[in-house]
Write a structure and sequence with these properties.
The chain has ten helices and 13 strands. By secondary structure, it is α/β, with parallel strands linked by helices. The protein has two domains: about 200 residues, NAD(P)-binding Rossmann-like Domain (Rossmann fold), CATH 3.40.50; about 90 residues, UDP-galactose 4-epimerase, domain 1 (Alpha-Beta Complex), CATH 3.90.25.10. The strands form four sheets. Strands 3-2-1-4-5-6-11 form a seven-stranded parallel sheet, with helices on both faces. A two-stranded parallel ribbon has the order 7-10. Helix 6 packs parallel to helix 8 and helix 6 crosses helix 10. The protein is globular, with a radius of gyration of 20 Å.
Length: about 325
Amino acid sequence: MNKTALITGITGQDGSYLSEFLLDKGYEVYGLIRRSSSPNLSRIAHISDRVKLLSGDLTDQTSLDGALRMAEPDEIYNLAAQSFVATSWNQPTLTADINGVGFVRLLEAVRHSGREIRVYQASSSEMFGMVEESPQNEDTKFHPRSPYACAKAFSHHTAVNYRESYNMFVCSGILFNHESPRRGLEFVTRKITDGVARIYHQRASKLMLGNLEVKRDWGYAGDYVRAMWLMLQQDKPEDFVIATGENHTVKEFAKLAFEQVGLDWKKYVAVDPQFFRPAEVTQLCGDASKAKRVLGWKPEVGFQQLVTMMVEADMERVARQIHHSSP
């Protein structure tokens, strides 16, 4: 019998890739979306006839209870979040309510549903923050440096607590940065590749960035959703770091992106202090050896391939926009 999955945050980058992955596995896929006058369904438009969308919100317990009754899922993937770290400084209470308490509401809905449901929680490498060792693994101490990271750490510990207190199958994936052409334009990687495309097509002359020296472990989102699924197929629930084991600076990412179109990044990139964080996370690099050993998972897309993929997609998109706007 085919399984049923409920994905919160289905319209986001990870939600769209995970939906495709599960549909290919023969799942019936439900997605939770917030009610709005103009929902952004662009990332799942190509599979909209194959997924069932339910109205709900992590800030509303009743809607979560109702979504579980409607979907009757075997698996839940909690990908919904206020996902932009910079915004969490301006909206800390909202971030805590969605990313932190929202997960408690979801687990309570599962606990009272009377069903055996396996739950995946999207934890984040941002929880490590001011790192005390590198690379970071499942036992590395958390030192969150943003309201976003604090809320994610709360949810991560909540997952452990419900697993131990109620014997629930709850896994957390501590995912390091993962990107794709579907990444939001506000994130630095996509901001860079979009900027490259606009500069190349003479729609912009400068790209304003923050701290160029921070290091991140960047992987491909399509690889990382496979790890989410693998976690819920195990005999027992555990937490896993998902990462490439490499870190690169923002400067390296920008340099490589501009090189894809034959431009010198130094001529176009400028640093703007407004994009610096109040408390910076200077470097993150993950050790995914447990995931490789237990899940049999490893990343398939490398750093250069990822940057090339994103630049090519934005080059095509901007060219298409120019063509459609031409008289």
